[in-house]
Amino acid sequence: MLVGQYDYAIDTKGRLNFPARFRDAMGETFIVTRWLDHCLAAFPTEEFEKVAAKIEEKGLVKGRKVSRMLYASAVEVTPDKQGRIQLPAKLREYAGLDHDVTIIGNRSFAEIWNTAAWNGDQATSDEDFTAAMEELDF
């Protein structure tokens, strides 16, 4: 299970350290793609296949926009010996990743955030969290 929050800096070549605690769960190579709220998602290949199956269940017509967004922007990454992954410019631009980056565990996948955006989201999310927990009847 991927849990926790890790802060890093992306270098000028678009390389990002990926948490050592997550690398084992992700596998030798994994998928990074656009995700919700202008962040990126990093999926172990088998988890990305599960997402693909859910989209496929909705059918080609209903799932087309999500399918296009996820697959067109997806890249397969392999951490180097220092544990860094290379993020393409288009993905960095989409998520606003220019320097400070926060990587969070989200159970079966990780989210990659611009740190300022993550901090801003967290500052305003207490009421949203409470409402969501109530909706789930916790």
TrEMBL record:
A GO term, aspect molecular function: DNA-binding transcription factor activity
Domain spans labelled SpoVT-AbrB: 5-47, 74-117
Keywords from the UniProt entry: Cytoplasm, DNA-binding, Repeat, Transcription, Transcription regulation
SUPFAM superfamilies, per the entry: AbrB/MazE/MraZ-like (SSF89447)
Pfam name, any one: MraZ
Biological-process GO terms, alphabetical: negative regulation of DNA-templated transcription initiation
Compartments where found: Cytoplasm, Nucleoid
Signal peptide (from-to): none
Gene Ontology, cellular component aspect: cytoplasm; nucleoid
InterPro entries to which the protein is assigned, alphabetical: MraZ, MraZ_C, MraZ_dom, MraZ_N, MraZ_sf, SpoVT-AbrB_dom, SpoVT-AbrB_sf
Gene3D superfamilies: Transcriptional regulator MraZ domain
Any coiled-coil regions, as ranges: none
NCBIfam families: division/cell wall cluster transcriptional repressor MraZ
Quaternary structure (record): Forms oligomers.
PANTHER family attached to this UniProt entry: TRANSCRIPTIONAL REGULATOR MRAZ
Family in the record: Belongs to the MraZ family.
Name of the protein in its database record: Transcriptional regulator MraZ
Organism name: Subdoligranulum variabile DSM 15176
